[in-house]
Amino acid sequence: MKRKIGFVCIGQAGGNIGQILESQGYNCLFINTSREDLDTLNTKYRYHIEGGEGCNHNREKAISLIKKDYRRVLEEVQDKLYHQQLIYLVFSTGGGTGSGFAPILLEALSSTTNKSYGCITILPAFDEPLKAHMNAFKCYQELSTIEKLATVFTLDNEKLNKFTINTHFVSLFNTALDITNHLDTRGNIDKAELWEMLNTRGNAIITTCNSSSSTNLTSSIIKSWEQNVFADIERDKSIVYMGLSLTADINLDDLKKYIGNPLDVFKNYNRDQTVTILSGLSFPKARINKIIDTLNNNKDTIKKNILNSKINKIDTSIDWLDDIEKPASKDTGIHINLEEIFSKY
Ligand SMILES: Nc1nc2c(ncn2[C@@H]2O[C@H](COP(=O)(O)OP(=O)(O)OP(=O)(O)O)[C@@H](O)[C@H]2O)c(=O)[nH]1
Ligand SMILES: [Mg+2]
């Protein structure tokens, strides 16, 4: 399974998560507009966008660069991730490069090849600058309109330190891929079922928890759905698949009461820890609404600051100074014939 999944890691956050993924044996291609950022990575496949010098959190700059170099980027993805069938784009929504590139590339890749493309994306913490929120809103809105899309894992920097989130996520992803290896006469999850869960459009989360008794395990699972590194799940009870690898039996009805009634449930048993995969969830609207609230609450500041950078000028004047300078700077209207003056001498 590991060899069927590849990653296109874009921008700094994508690069940081990608480095961990590559160290765990996944095939990764790293893309950035900043050569300096790419040079800090000790990784196998790197591509520097032509003409790129970093995008300083400017999505528009990133979009105009990818529009010029997209053919080479698509070729790189085809070439370096040739053997992978499911490809995740890894990037933050709050910066310029990853946030600007990812929706365009996802749409271009998914409409020109017959592979599946999903994403691992990051939302900014509440205390990050307004620009990060502006980028995140635009990026996530674009992502959510792409029709041909596999799972979207939405990490939330509000939850934990960003580097802790990176390692947690990679560990959870490994755990999810390992789910098919727990064989038990009471039930198995096969590779096709796991593949289906990862290929389903919509938001997805992976969680783990531990508890030996079944009542406690049911509430531990619900707690793991509430407290994790992902954006809070949308509480509209829409869900396509629920994957459960259990250390004890649980009350499925209680889980359904909380999460909704999935189209299908894949279940097996596991001696180490309980693992859950929820896929085909709605995009995290309530969390995105918090970004929208931040932007609305700062509407005047954002408008003022953006306008200020365009029409910034000192427009006060000192009347008396203007008056003194007037005759010197303006045509006096007196036209003396200099030739006449000189001819006298
Ligand atoms: N979870 C996590 N978030 C990160 C990491 N690095 C940066 N971020 C977040 O990503 C956003 C900034 O995006 P970057 O990935 O640095 O931007 P970029 O894609 O390189 O784009 P530019 O540098 O603007 O061209 C902010 O919200 C950061 O908090 C990381 O390693 N992990
Ligand atoms: Mg960067």
What is this entry, summarized?
With 345 residues, the chain is α/β, with parallel strands linked by helices. The protein is 46% helix and 19% strand.
Small-molecule binders here are: guanosine-5'-triphosphate, magnesium ion
Helicity level: 40-55%
Q: Which regions contain 5 or more consecutive residues with pLDDT less than 50?
A: none
Largest sheet: 10 strands, mixed
Quaternary structure annotation:
single chain
How large is the share of residues in beta strands?
15-25%
Q: Which structural class best describes the helix and strand composition?
A: alpha/beta
Strand order of the largest sheet: 3-2-1-4-5-6-7-10-8-9
Overall 3D shape: elongated
Radius of gyration: 28 Å
Q: What is the ordering of alpha helices and beta strands?
A: EHEHEHEHEHEHHEHEHEEHHHH
Task: Identify the CATH architecture of the domain at 162-282.
Answer: 2-Layer Sandwich
Total beta strand runs: 10
Number of helices: 13
Mean pLDDT: 93
In CATH, what is the class of the domain at 162-282?
A: Alpha Beta
CATH topology (fold) name of the domain at 162-282: 60s Ribosomal Protein L30, Chain: A
> How many angstroms does the end-to-end distance come to?
102 Å
